[in-house]
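Incident log entry.

Two folding requests arrived from the same account within the same minute. Monitoring flagged them as a possible duplicate submission, but the sequences differ. Recording both here for audit purposes.

Request one:
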Amino acid sequence: MPNVREPGARESATRSAAQPRPGTPRPGTHGGLAGAREKLRAAATTEPGRLWLIGTVVAVLVVAFGAVTAWEVSDRSAAAGDVVSRSQPLSADAASIYRSLADADTAAASGFLAGGQEPLDVRKRYDTDIATASRLLVKAASNTTGSAESAQQIATLNEQLPLYNGLVEQARANNRQGFPVGGAYLRFANQKMSTSLLPAAQKLYEAETGRLYDDYDQADTWPYASTVLGLVALAGLVWVQRRNYLRTNRVFNHGLLAATAASTVVLLWLVVGHAVAASDLSTSRAHGQESLKVLNDARISSLQARANENLTLVARGAVLTPEGKDLYEAEFTKEMASLSARLGAARSLADDDAGKAPVAKAVGDMEEWQKRHTAARRTDDSGDYDGALTQVLGAKGSTGECFDQVDEELDSAIAHEQPLRMPRLALITVWDRKSGSSRAASAPRPNPTKSRTVPTRNSQVVAALAVEERLGPPCWVRSAAAASRRADLRDPTACRTEPVP
């Protein structure tokens, strides 16, 4: 009897055979990572899949190149903008604070030597220096952020400046009345200036100059990451197009060709543009900032030399070195040697006649200053104190005349270097702004005017007469002979009450 199946048995057997065995995974039911690997493996087995994979990798490289390039260009543009708008002005202000304090100390000693009636121009110069230092300290405190060292030095200057000013006022008051103790107050003020104010101003200047050089280095750093990514992206694009040509005989692919052209242009712009900007930054640093630093240091040395020259006549041998030499005369010699070395460095850094001329004149006036100082010391050592005073403070033929000429010539050289060099940085930051930064376009340029300005009606001397500190017992118990001898002046904090023989 034939084997006859019931209706529908055949279809049921077919469905049973199509069902997978228990434990066998269904197609497409792999885990996420395993499924992705399976898809990539399947895509790599066909030419369209391989093209899709290669295109994805190349697209990622091109996008990464563009993103890293934008980030590095923006970072260096911001650093170049900080050089112009923040670091360089703060460094210049710190140098101006130091100069103002040193010049104030010089003016105080000059006014004291002039006698009870201090010349109006000397007093005005002192007041201007104190007001300038106070104003710049306020500005530095508001603009210096994130620097603990700068904040500490600014606090020290704000604390010590009123005390120094009060000591100078005490010296003036006693000098007007003919009391020799005024010289002791002036020496004590100079000691505070030399041991507290000027070192703090020097540290502030070094801190801000260090930040300036850090910004220079950051702006000048080569964009290695974007350069490497650009080269890799270009190599990948060229390889893909060559592969397509060999396999498909297709000469050009519009998308790949456009990506190659764009990447080439961006890479060339990055390399050439950064090379030009780095060259200009290096030039401005070598012939602008370095020259400014040397000129500022030279001017500070001249101011300190002048202050020590005046204090030599004020103390008249009362303060000696451990070797038994006059302290202020030794300090004058040291500062003049420093001034000579710095003027030589400034002349070598100047790269045009307008920059070399004032430095050359300053060198000649410095040499004349040394000759006149030697003559004044010879006069004082021979016992003619009034004659030496005239040779130091006189209007004509004095060391003061040489000092004023040196100071004016250095001021002229600084004014020449500032507007000539630093705007070149502004041009660099405007060029960099086209690559992604808009900060530096409005960066203010340094003021080329002279730093010594006449104060306005509202300019006030900081705490002119406010001194909270007690200076010690009054030095009024002295013999008449001691009162007439300036060589016997003593520190007001260590005053004796018994008559001095």
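Request two (distinct sequence, not a duplicate):
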Amino acid sequence: MFTVEECKKVLRSKGAKYTDEEVEKIREALHSHVKMVNEAYTSQNSQNNPTQKKKRK
């Protein structure tokens, strides 16, 4: 996960102006999206590969 400082650097690199609070919200949203994509990929990958063992909860 990116640090807040890394996010600030990227988001502000083209002269855009974001407050620290906005940067933190964008960072959290990005993390949530990455988590959803990863879960979807993992689910799809396990369905397409029946030899792969599924994790038990």
